[in-house]
Amino acid sequence: MNETATILQRRIVVGAAICVAAFALVTLKLVNATLFHDAARKSARGVLEYSRADLVDRNGELLARDIPVSDLYARPHAFWDKQEAARDLALATGADERRLLALFNGKHPYVLIAQKLTPDAQARAMHTQLPGLDFVPSVKRYYPDGRATAQVIGVTSRDKHGEDQGVSGLEGGLNARLLGGRAGEAVQLSLDMRVQYILAHEVETSREEFSAKQAGGVVLDVRTGEVLAMVSLPDFDPNSRMFGNGDTTHNVIGQDVYELGSVFKIFSFALAMEDHTTTPDEFFKIGNGYKIGKYTIHEAEHMPAMLAARDILALSSNIGTTQIALRSGPVRQEQFLDSLGLLHALHTELPEARRPHFPSHWGTIETATVSFGHGITVSPLAFAAAAAIVVNGGRRITPTFLKHPKDARGEQVIKPETSAKMRELLRYVVTNGTGKKADILGYDVGGKTGSAQKARQNGRGYEHKLVTSFCAAFPIDNPRYLVFVLLDEPHGTKATFGFALAGYTAAPLAGRVISRIAPILGVPQRMQAALPGWSHT
Amino acid sequence: MIRVLNFFFVALTSLSILALYNVSERTRLADVNLARVNHQIAAEHSQISVLETEWEQVASPAKIAMLAETKLGLNNTATVQLSSLELLPRRGDDTAPLSPSPVRRASVQIPLQSGPLQQIAVHSGTE
Fold this sequence. Notes:
Chain A is an alpha+beta fold. Chain A has helices at about 1-35, 35-45, 80-95, 95-105, 120-125, 150-155, 170-175, 175-180, 195-210, 265-275, 310-315, 320-340, 365-370, 380-390, 415-430, 505-520; strands at about 55, 60-75, 110-115, 135-140, 155-160, 165, 185-190, 215-220, 225-235, 285, 290, 295, 305-310, 445-455, 460-475, 480-490.
């Protein structure tokens, strides 16, 4: 009985073990199907899973994306007619036929035909029905807007590990964020493609009209610090990576530093208003030159013998501005420009940041020249940021290329009353001074022109070449946006009577930009419609 | 009794093996199917990605502006063409705007003498 029981027990145990083993196997298989589910899905999604994040503008419009492409390789020994294969593949991929034929007649059994073929080019290559073709999947960074955003977005380059790394523009500055982002998550920039296109179009038009060597512009939100548009010409095609004649990656707005000339008088007057060293209605003697030691300050254009301070700014008198700046003195001027951030490199998401150049010895003559924008070089973007402080109520902002729609104004740099006075003066420049061509019907624009002679390469004296600029804010009683445009070496035309000064070149450019972007940005219009049948004066 | 038990356990084992095979096979097929679907999803993602990029390119402001100018003869809107709703006249009354609020003057109509900002956008009703 005991023996029988033992056999029975053994059989029960064996049966139970088999059941447990079967159960365990089933369980394991189910676990395999569920636990590794994500991994299987991830591997199936392919190369896009590991690519850089998209870049989109503030409205979600695509600016940069990795698209699936293929690198095409071939085994030449599989071709019946190598010449015909070279011709067909050259037509399909855009590769050079002679190079392909040389490759096919060479020793290598496996040759590269073309890299980063787009899906349609891949389809054309497959349509040749040639044997021995091999498509290796890859990704290509693509910029749908091409040249319009090239300078600010920048480009990527493949590193030794085969991974795309940003090498210029925001691709470089936001590289870690673009690589580390979650799949499908885009990085939203502050740029507005509508504004970017308009700025690019108008800057290009003016550059052609005045045959300028370089040109650029930036549109800045003076409350949030967001850069809505930035353009620098000449530019390049970020999709071809082949530089045409005159193409460059050099960003004149963010990367270059300039002596900006009279547009700098904004800060000289802001300092005077802040310290109450003058009032807009105080008169100054102008004369035919202002002597400081062995130097004489001259005017760019003929000026009346006496000018009120507001007209000194409106007509851009160097002599008048010098007298006003000298009341503050070198120490205070340096401290004031420093507080506006003009004596340090401006750090934004753009990796290209240049340090400003300013006098090592800040004496009387330096105070005079700096007051009208000579002897100090700053980047146009840094200038725009400082000018934004002057008009936005006097509070510091830092330009950013990331969407940040909330008010980001920081510490108070100048008094709100000073800012209000400056807005009034800048409006006066546009209505009564050199900025008249920027006065746009319906939008109260305030601004200042700047026409600076370019320094010689050897550092001795100045050439008869100009850098003209215009800094505008609108609507000027409560500014929201700042537009800064710059033309490097513009030439006068018949329409400008041969003048290349900022009032004839940069001011109308800024005016055209504002007239087109203001309705898009929802800036309320202040005008009386010319309705038939009634008038209102 | 023992034979019955033996038969029962052998049958149970056989059934377990069959069930195991069945589940295993179904799991394998589900896995293959899953991989195929995932591959299709990936391919669709790629195609959508490319199509979105192509759409951005063909619908870029530069292309739209060029087409609007060449095909439709359109041009940029001048600011004088823009107005606000309150400036529209009432029906049957061409002489008064909808809103009784005073109408702001165009900035370019500002007299040449200087004045504070408050006077720049003057209200015609208060002048």
